[in-house]
Design brief:
By secondary structure, the chain is of the alpha/beta class. It has one domain. Helices cover about 30% and strands about 20% of the residues. The protein has helices at about 10-20, 90, 100-110, 130-145; strands at about 40-45, 50, 65-70, 75-80, 115, 120, 150-155. The strands form 2 sheets. Strands 1, 3, 5, 6 and 7 form a 5-stranded mixed beta sheet that branches. Strands 2-4 form a two-stranded antiparallel ribbon. The longest helix has 17 residues, at about 130-145. The chain starts with 8 loop residues before the first helix and ends with a strand.
């Protein structure tokens, strides 16, 4: 894992500015809901994944890709553009960034209620505030699909 001290002063400042640009949500309380064993779960990742045949992510992309839940792991590609992103974990096991197999195990074991038919991927190298309009759009899709829990895999 890279440390801030490993970067040049300008690169270090670039990464620190990303943190300062994050919105302040204050002390937002958790929302009560049903037990996990009754929830419908979707995965949202910032790993730049997309299904084979879908368009790859490009520099500055603020949109997302829809990943059908029945997409075979062999058909998931990563087009994350950041040179700072280590892809070796994904190459070894897709579940590192897109843990659909682990989620299926939790459903089979009764710990999770059900899995959404669709999951979503952003390319996390975009400015955080630029992602908000698409995140709001995605929230509407998740609500329509009756998703009431997300497994977030920030990369």
């Amino acid at each position: 894992m890279a440390r801030l001290t490993d970067f040049s002063a300008s690169e270090r400042e670039h990464h620190l500015q990303k943190i300062r640009d994050l919105p302040d949500f204050g002390r937002t309380p958790f929302v009560p809901g049903p037990p996990l064993r009754e929830r419908r779960v979707a995965i949202v990742t910032t790993s730049g994944l997309h299904a084979r045949g879908d368009r790859p992510f490009v520099i500055g992309a603020t949109d997302y890709r829809v990943i059908p839940g029945d997409t075979p792991a062999a058909d998931l590609l990563m087009s994350h553009v950041s040179v700072n992103f280590d892809r070796s974990g994904f190459q070894e096991d897709v579940n590192v960034v897109f843990p659909l197999d682990r989620l299926r195990e939790l459903v089979a074991g009764g710990e999770v209620g059900s899995i959404s038919d669709f999951h979503y991927s952003f390319m996390g190298a975009a400015p955080i505030r630029a992602l908000e309009p698409k995140a709001r759009e995605l929230a509407a899709l998740l609500k329509k699909d009756r998703v009431d829990a997300l497994l977030l895999t920030p990369v």
